[in-house]
Design goal:
Helix content is 9%, strand content 46%. It is mainly beta and 285 residues long.
Length: 285
């Protein structure tokens, strides 16, 4: 029985936190606020990094090769990564599959221009029909773009909703250490709903997910934060950015604000920061 006949969840989530000040202007105007853009970029890269690891894990497990997973599935990182699969452990009701992606001990620059080293380890549990019930991802001495990333991530099947869509619970944490030894830490507690793509498990590009839930942690500048998804996020496997939805951010000793990804199907890196009746447009990496 092919263990990969049914789809798995391909999360794709981004975490951004930031500091806003400025004079009052109409929200319809794109105005310049006094933003700490360095922290915004660092926060944005947390989400991008976690999603990238999950994409690599998905592709390695399902297709046995690795791509940078932005727009072109053929843009393969095989020059830097090797994929190893241990023997599947067969049980009475569930089978367990182990996959390991190794980028080596020396930084290697992929076709996407990002340098990586270290390992990503994946353990998935399937029922006898090939449906994924559980997945755990851990990194081992993993570095990307000079930053050390320690990720522990567990995805567990939760329920079938009223629309017959599969829902998974996601818990875990990530710690990113920068070259100056500053750190960003994030704990997440979310639910992912597979909206479409379940009928084509080997086509990773047509999956569309809806994400709800929250995160909390400590930013690179040492401030505590919490964010809550107030309008469900929409993500697709054929786009590295969130397509729509809103996240409310609460930063230690700062006023609340909202990150608005818009409403629609466009794939772009522009995001609105809403603060009172002000708006600032930023661009993600």
């Amino acid at each position: 029985m092919n263990l990969l006949k049914k789809t798995s969840l391909f999360p794709f989530f981004f975490s951004l936190t930031f500091l806003l000040f400025g004079c009052q202007k109409n929200i319809d105007e794109d105005v310049e606020l006094d933003l700490d853009t360095e922290i915004i970029i660092a926060d944005a890269n947390v989400g991008v990094t976690v999603s990238e690891i999950d994409n690599i894990a998905d592709q390695a497990e399902v297709l046995s090769f690795v791509s940078k997973k932005t727009y072109d599935i053929t843009d393969v990182l095989n020059d830097c990564a090797t994929v190893e699969k241990d023997d599947t452990l067969f049980g009475n009701n569930y089978d367990t599959l182990y996959t390991r992606v190794s980028f080596g001990e020396v930084e290697c620059e992929g076709i996407d221009g990002r340098k990586r080293k270290g390992k990503i380890e994946i353990m998935s549990v399937y029922n006898k029909l090939g449906f994924r019930k559980f997945r755990e991802i851990n990194t081992e001495n993993y570095h990307v773009q000079g930053k050390k990333v320690r990720l522990q991530r567990k995805l567990e099947y939760d329920t079938l909703n009223d629309l017959n869509q599969f829902v998974w619970k996601l818990i875990g944490n990530v710690e990113i250490t920068y070259s100056n030894n500053e750190k960003t830490t994030v704990d997440f507690d979310k639910k992912y709903t597979l909206v479409s793509g379940g009928d084509t498990p080997l086509n990773l590009e047509d999956d569309e997910l809806q994400i709800t839930g929250s995160e909390n942690g400590i930013r690179k500048n040492g401030k505590n934060f919490t964010n809550t998804i107030i309008e469900p996020l929409k993500v697709s496997r054929n786009c590295r950015y969130v397509k729509e939805g809103k996240i409310k951010f609460e930063i230690e000793n700062e006023i609340d604000f909202v990150l608005d990804y818009g409403a629609g199907s466009d794939c772009d890196n522009k995001v609105d920061i809403l603060y009172g009746d002000q708006k600032e447009v930023i661009e993600l990496d």
